[in-house]
């Protein structure tokens, strides 16, 4: 079945079984590496993407529900040459060990920071409730999210922007 | 011939390197290890000199460092990136001694076609082994380049210096590295001694340069074997048996063969797998096969609620780990039994591999910790020549020891051999990893120790019961699919061995000084549940028991626990980390108020590697039994610090991971099946339970050997948590993990 998907601002036509989890379509059909397979059960958050502003577990979301929605993956936050604020913050804080869970963390954070760029400690922890990290990078992940919020606020405040 | 048994497998005498092609000035094919030559000669050759780190096993400089005619520098390591930052740290040591920038080093990690054989990336030994080898090789290469320039210019070498890929003379003449290596300049055996840069001259070592792998990982670059997408690649899933001793009786594959996208069903004894065009088709076919398969099962598992009985009943050898003075203890006595359950590695990404068989030649991409041992085991499983099997490392999710990586590689290899031509990608499901990865073994520790009127320990009796903690390949029998095939390879009998760095007995002997001790390992040979190396091996539970006992003895002696430890520590570096952690924590200002307690613990990993002390502040919610580490403050000395932020990152991770093991984690099973098969039946620490802060203070030891970092926090952390709970509630917990139920029961809620 042909399905039209809007991912990171681009429209893609894919021909897949409509029951296919969005994750497999993102990874295999669109060749996007960011969302990861972790459990296939919606328990670990490695597959998290943002759909219409909300964090969604793509491993348990059938692709057929995604038509007409705006899907964002970590690839939509910036590039290795021009990283976005979340990516910049994770690099700056060296907030990864193996890094496998990190894109999912970043997408949960993206959904949070889009709503609230000064989240409290409690709000960050709650937003990451579904995301598991096994390397124990939790402290740096939380620090990177706070830092990303700062970077986003700086970018949104033109009066403070430096010339050039 | 076989030599150098190391970490449970046997190395070959031949160290192979592929022919280096392209424009490289150095072309080397085989570097024969001297012991092979020795065997071929009728007269015994003299023992070759010991070389630094892994240079001792791959002795030629060009096995490690290649400089092309255009000056490009490539460094080869047999170690792999596990998320510990080794790709960055190894570049740093090479760049330091070669007088270039880290970004100018091209690093090739483990690949049986290209790199030295460094066995497994395990035991926190990458910096000691590979880091030491590369640093020494780089220093020797630099000196060879200087000598060559001196020869060409006819000037004394001590008048020359290396700088930015060139050798510079006093008169400012320069010549590039690439011009100098136009002959087989580096095709020489390394020397035992190197002219290493002095600690005060270091530019790159000791700097927290950013990890080279993180930018791709946060922008969706290809970073893991899971991301490998080869042309015409097929997707496979394995239908694992429902329980460890299950055998496949019958499976009607006809209907599954008709499912969309199914290419092939591979059955070989109890090994059952499906290959399909698309990934979700493979998943659907796997689920259908699970329904169609009929298995015979056997109730062979021990009683989960009485692992002590199982461990005490499985009779094996008893090994003496340490003995000093008399086994008698006197004075005030502390006596207790501690227990640890089976625990999992729990990689966030389940194991994955890609394999392709073309014209009888097999290539496997795997996140294995040991490409050479895996190559050997896979070749044995398939009855292939070693030369026709190549194993290339690609990163996976963090593994923390021997997880399903090797098995997934073997799955892919076996399926590719049955379905040759197109690449086969095998992705384990979550339940495969949870139920089939080798677990960290259950352990039982009994301790009896005394403290005299002088406040010093009089004697120490310690008995531990455990399986072996490494069943890595070496041998096809350690690969799951090889066990399940019709022509099954049997599980190799575990080898019991008391070694310097320890296994189940790792850190069983306290570092503390006292006159009388006896430490015994009661070896448990039966392995009803599959077990192998989990980060720190036995050190996690042994240090938990020892450091819990140290606090109890301090109480009996009526001495502050930090002071009590210092009283028994003679090693200055041990004392330094204890004092540093205590000071940074603010230990002298007393215990916290309210429902918060504090605890301290220390160990030197393996009694010969990194020193680590940690103090924690723990909060307890009495009504629910919920505990949380609020604050952890640690100090670590892992020798000369190459990348201090890398040491901090790994140590923070070690503390948090060990906290998760300690508060939540145990494998569950009934008499037949493993029942903890996902994150809901095997919960781990989530963000709401993460600490408020984790501090790591790096105590640098310039000029000292690299000691490794990755596992140092695993032992002290559970003890510090137990000690904090004891300080707060007056009750000690002896059984890991400290679940809410256990805490509530202990404090009488």
Automatic annotation (TrEMBL), chain A:
Record-level Gene Ontology MF annotations: 2 iron, 2 sulfur cluster binding; metal ion binding; oxidoreductase activity
Residues that span the membrane, as ranges: none
Keywords: 2Fe-2S, Iron, Iron-sulfur, Metal-binding, Oxidoreductase
The species this protein was found in: Chelativorans sp. (strain BNC1)
Limits of the 2Fe-2S ferredoxin-type domain: 1-77
PANTHER family: BLR6046 PROTEIN, OXIDOREDUCTASE WITH IRON-SULFUR SUBUNIT
Gene3D superfamilies cross-referenced by the UniProt entry: 3.10.20.30, [2Fe-2S]-binding domain
Keyword Protein transport: no
Protein name: (2Fe-2S)-binding protein
UniProt KW Membrane keyword: no
């Amino acid at each position: 079945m042909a399905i039209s998907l809007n991912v990171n601002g681009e429209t893609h036509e894919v021909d897949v079984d409509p029951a296919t989890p969005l994750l497999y379509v993102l990874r295999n059909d669109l060749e996007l590496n960011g969302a990861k397979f972790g459990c296939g059960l919606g328990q670990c958050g490695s597959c998290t993407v943002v759909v219409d502003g909300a964090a969604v577990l793509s491993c348990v979301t059938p692709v057929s529900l995604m038509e007409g929605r705006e899907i964002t993956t970590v690839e939509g936050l910036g590039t290795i040459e021009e990283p976005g604020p979340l990516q910049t913050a994770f690099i700056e804080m060296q907030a990864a060990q193996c890094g496998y869970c990190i894109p999912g963390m970043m997408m949960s954070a993206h959904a949070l920071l889009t709503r609230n760029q000064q989240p409290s400690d409690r709000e960050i922890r709650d937003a990451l409730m579904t995301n598991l990290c096994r390397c124990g990078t939790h402290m740096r992940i939380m620090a990177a999210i706070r830092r990303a919020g700062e970077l986003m606020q700086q970018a949104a405040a033109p009066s403070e922007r430096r010339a050039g | 011939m076989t030599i150098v048994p190391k970490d449970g497998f046997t190395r070959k005498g031949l160290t192979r390197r592929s022919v280096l092609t392209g424009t490289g000035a150095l072309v080397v094919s085989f570097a024969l290890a001297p012991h092979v030559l020795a065997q071929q000669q009728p007269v015994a050759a003299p023992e070759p000199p010991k070389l630094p780190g892994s240079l001792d096993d791959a002795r030629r400089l060009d096995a490690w460092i290649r400089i092309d005619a255009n000056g490009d520098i490539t460094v080869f390591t047999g170690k792999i990136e596990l998320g510990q930052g080794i790709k960055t740290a190894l570049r740093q040591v090479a760049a330091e001694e070669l007088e270039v920038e880290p970004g100018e080093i091209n690093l090739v990690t483990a690949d049986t076609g290209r790199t030295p054989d460094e066995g497994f990336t395990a035991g926190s030994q990458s910096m000691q082994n590979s880091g030491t080898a590369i640093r020494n090789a780089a220093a020797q290469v630099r000196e060879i380049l200087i000598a060559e320039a001196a020869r060409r210019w006819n000037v004394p070498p001590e008048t020359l210096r290396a700088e930015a890929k060139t050798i510079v003379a006093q008169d400012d003449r320069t010549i590039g590295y690439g011009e100098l290596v136009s002959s087989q300049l580096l095709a020489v055996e390394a020397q035992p001694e190197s002219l290493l840069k002095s600690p005060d001259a270091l530019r790159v070592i000791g700097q927290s340069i950013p990890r080279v792998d993180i930018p791709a990982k946060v922008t969706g670059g290809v970073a893991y074997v899971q991301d490998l997408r080869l042309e015409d690649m097929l997707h496979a899933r394995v239908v694992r048996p429902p329980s460890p001793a299950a055998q496949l009786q019958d499976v009607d594959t006809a209907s599954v063969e008709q499912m969309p996208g199914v290419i092939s069903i591979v059955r070989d004894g109890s090994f059952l797998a499906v290959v399909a065009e698309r990934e979700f088709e493979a998943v659907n076919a796997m689920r259908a096969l699970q329904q169609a398969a009929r298995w015979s099962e056997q109730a062979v598992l021990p009683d989960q609620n009485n692992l002590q009985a199982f461990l005490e009943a499985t009779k094996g050898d008893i090994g003496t780990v340490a003995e000093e003075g008399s086994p008698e203890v006197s004075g005030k006595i502390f006596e207790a039994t501690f227990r640890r359950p089976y625990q999992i590695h729990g990689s966030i990404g389940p194991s994955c591999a890609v394999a392709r068989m073309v014209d009888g030649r097999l290539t496997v991409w795997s996140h294995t910790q040991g490409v050479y041992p895996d190559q050997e085991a896979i070749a044995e499983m398939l009855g292939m020549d070693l030369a026709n099997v190549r194993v290339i490392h690609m990163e996976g999710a963090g593994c923390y020891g021997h997880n399903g990586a090797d098995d997934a590689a073997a799955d892919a290899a076996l399926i590719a051999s049955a379905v040759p031509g197109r690449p086969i990608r095998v992705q384990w499901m979550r339940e495969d990893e949870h139920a089939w990865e080798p677990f960290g073994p259950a352990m039982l520790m009994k301790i009896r120790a005394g403290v005299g009127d002088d406040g010093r320990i009089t004697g120490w009796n310690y008995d531990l019961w455990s399986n072996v903690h490494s069943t890595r390949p070496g041998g096809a029998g350690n690969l799951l699919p090889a066990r399940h095939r019709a022509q099954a390879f049997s599980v190799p009998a575990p080898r019991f061995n008391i070694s310097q760095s320890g296994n189940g007995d790792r850190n069983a002997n306290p570092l503390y000084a006292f006159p009388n001790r006896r430490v015994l390992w009661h070896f448990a040979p039966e392995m009803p549940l599959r077990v192998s190396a989990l980060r720190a091996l036995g050190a996690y539970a042994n240090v938990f028991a020892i450091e819990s006992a140290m606090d109890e003895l301090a109480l009996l002696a009526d001495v502050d626990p930090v002071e009590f430890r210092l009283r028994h520590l003679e090693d200055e570096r041990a004392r330094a980390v204890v004092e540093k952690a205590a000071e940074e924590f603010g230990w002298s200002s007393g215990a916290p108020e309210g429902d918060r307690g504090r605890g301290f613990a220390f160990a030197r990993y393996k009694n010969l590697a990194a020193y680590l002390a940690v103090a924690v502040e723990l909060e307890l919610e009495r009504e629910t039994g919920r505990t949380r580490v609020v604050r952890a403050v640690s100090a670590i000395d892992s020798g000369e610090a190459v990348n201090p932020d890398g040491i901090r990152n790994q140590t923070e991770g070690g503390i948090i991971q060990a906290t998760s093991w300690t508060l939540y984690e145990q494998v569950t099973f009934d008499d037949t099946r493993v029942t903890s098969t996902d994150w809901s039946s095997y919960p781990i620490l989530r963000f709401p339970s993460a600490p408020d802060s984790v501090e790591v203070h790096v105590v640098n030891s310039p000029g000292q050997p690299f000691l490794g970092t990755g596992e140092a926090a695993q032992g002290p952390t559970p003890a510090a948590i137990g000690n904090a709970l004891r300080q707060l509630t007056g009750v000690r917990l002896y059984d890991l993990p400290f679940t809410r139920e256990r805490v509530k029961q202990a404090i009488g809620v």
